[in-house]
Amino acid sequence: MSQAPIPYPFAEPTRLDIDPRYEAIREQGIVRIQLPYGEPSWLITRAADAKIAYDFRKFGRREGLTHAIPGLHNTEGIKIPSLLLNMDPPEHTRIRQLAAGAFTPARIQEMEGWVQGFTDELLDEFEAHGPGADFIAMFAHKLPVLVLAGILGIPKDKAFEFKKWIDISSDSSATPERKLEARDTTLDFIRGLIAERRENATDDLLSVLINARDEGDKLEEEELVSLAMALWHGGFKTTLWQLGTTVFTLMTHPDQWHDIKEHPDNMHAALGELWRWIPSFKPGRAFGFWAKEDVTFSSGQVVKQGEHVLIEFAVANRDNSVWPDADKLDFHREKPQAHFSFTGGAHSCVGQHMARLQIRLAVESLIRRFPNLELAIPADEVEFDPDSFMRGIRKLPLKW
Ligand code: HEM
Q1: SS3 content of the chain, % helix, strand, coil (to 5)
Q2: Which residues line ligand 1 (CB under 6 A)?
Q3: What is the DSSP code string of 185-232?
Q4: pLDDT of residue 299
Q5: Whether residue 9 has a cis bond before it, omega within 30° of 0
Q6: Residue 3 pLDDT class (50, 70, 90 cuts)
Q7: Residue 260: helix, strand or coil by DSSP?
Q8: In a domain, 16, yes or no
Q9: Which of 270, 303, 275 lies closest to 289 in space, CA to CA?
């Protein structure tokens, strides 16, 4: 007998809290939910079930193009077949591999000095401003734009002007018309850049992609445009919000802040734990998948072919069966396990090494330059953004 779907999400999340109602859901296994838009879905909160749903042989995205996609809002605007997020292997693999080549750990390591340079410049300005400086406006809003603009070969001034359209397209308070306008302006801008590079090739990623060949086939124009757009969309706001919540988490966990400063040799584990613990995407905001066949989950519940699943990976990251006392931020876990913050499977974040690098350099540089860093206002006065798709902080004034 099929269950009546539960209205979802339960509530707008408060700051970095995880709704206690997920505990009972996880006990139960997977449950049927209904988001404000689209078809019903299945909610996944167990780590073991997340692994099942990230298997691209069983679950895909393509089917979403002809369905009403479950979500908080109408997402008709992103039903573009050439968008990476709407593709399944093997077409997805072909295009993704081109982008992934630019973001391998080795390539990212080569970029470390360059990203450190931006980090230093921004922290110089931050320091010059003096205590009370807003880390979000002065640092988190700028670093990912500088990095992405550098990778794609977009001049700095144009990148900041263009950033406002990205702000609109990911702002849930913007009207659908305004979002479509933002999408079209973004597309035009990228098409213009591509035309420019065809005239004058440089050594940036866009020029590399234009000339990229895969088994003799060039990328189609629209695939190229979509890929450049995916990098902009995927790499900017995400890193911005994560920079803010990472610093906020450290500032509101004084023992862990002390620990990370005292144990620089444990930096890798500490940052991994921060990635796991910080709930990044808000409930209902992850991109789901459609079952390609009937699939049985860990509780024995079967998801039928053609049904949708929504993986709340921030909740799966708090599964006590994988991370004992999972709600605790513990930099010295005996058995650190891979987290889901970049999801898993075929669509896992292609820019994750770049994201990890920016967060690491920011944390290391803050420790080096401002060892006495603390919040300049009480923690409960730090304002979170109700309109962002990730948990995001609007203003983070710091003192040292
Ligand atoms: C804090 C930083 C970041 C977070 C939390 C994050 C998170 C994610 C997540 C959860 C996905 C999976 C989306 C899906 O299911 O389709 C994803 C995909 C993606 N990310 Fe990131 N991301 C971050 C930074 C970046 C950066 C810096 C870039 C590029 C420079 C990037 C580019 C992408 C792209 C292109 C995809 C789509 C991959 C695909 O569909 O195959 N991301 N990211």
Answers
A1: 50, 10, 40
A2: 84-85, 96, 148, 230-231, 234-235, 238-239, 242, 280, 287, 341-343, 347, 349-351, 354-355
A3: HHHHHHHHHHHHHHHS--SSHHHHHHH-EETTEEPPHHHHHHHHHHHH
A4: 97
A5: yes
A6: low
A7: helix
A8: yes
A9: 303
Task: Tell me which residue range forms the domain holding 178.
Answer: 6-399
Which percentage of the chain shows pLDDT scores above 90? Answer: 68
Which atom number of ligand 1 is nearest to the Cα of residue 230? 35
Mean pLDDT over residues 47-53, rounded? 98
Tally of domains in the chain: 1
Question: What DSSP state is assigned to residue 14?
Answer: P
pLDDT tens, 203-262?
788 887 887 765 556 677 888 888 888 888 889 999 999 999 999 999 999 999 999 999
Q: What's the whole-number mean pLDDT along residues 101-108?
A: 84
Q: What is the pTM of this model?
A: 0.93
Between strands 133-134 and 308-311, the pairing is: unpaired
CATH number, position 376: 1.10.630.10
CA of 3 to the centre of ligand 1 (A): 33
Q: What is the distance in A from the centroid of ligand 1 to the CA of 341? A: 10
H/E element, 137? none
First to last CA, the chain: 60
SS3 384: strand
Atom of ligand 1 nearest to the CA of 354: 27
How many whole angstroms from 98 Cα to the centroid of ligand 1?
A: 15
Residue nearest to atom 27 of ligand 1 (CA): 235
Spatial CA neighbour of 34 closest among 225, 204, 340, 288:
288
Whole-angstrom Cα distance, residue 374 to residue 247? Answer: 10
Mean pLDDT, rounded, for 126-130: 98
Residue nearest to atom 5 of ligand 1 (CA): 238
Q: Which of 118, 233, 240, 352 to mutate to test the pocket of ligand 1 (most atoms within 8 A of CB)?
A: 352
Residue 361 has pLDDT above 70, yes or no: yes
Does pLDDT of 328 surpass 50?
A: yes
Whether the pLDDT of residue 2 is over 80: the answer is: no
In the reported structure, the alpha carbon of residue 236 is separated from the centroid of ligand 1 by a whole-number distance in angstroms of 10
1 assigned to some structural domain: no
Quick one: pLDDT at residue 9? 97
- Tell the residue nearest (CA) to atom 11 of ligand 1: 349
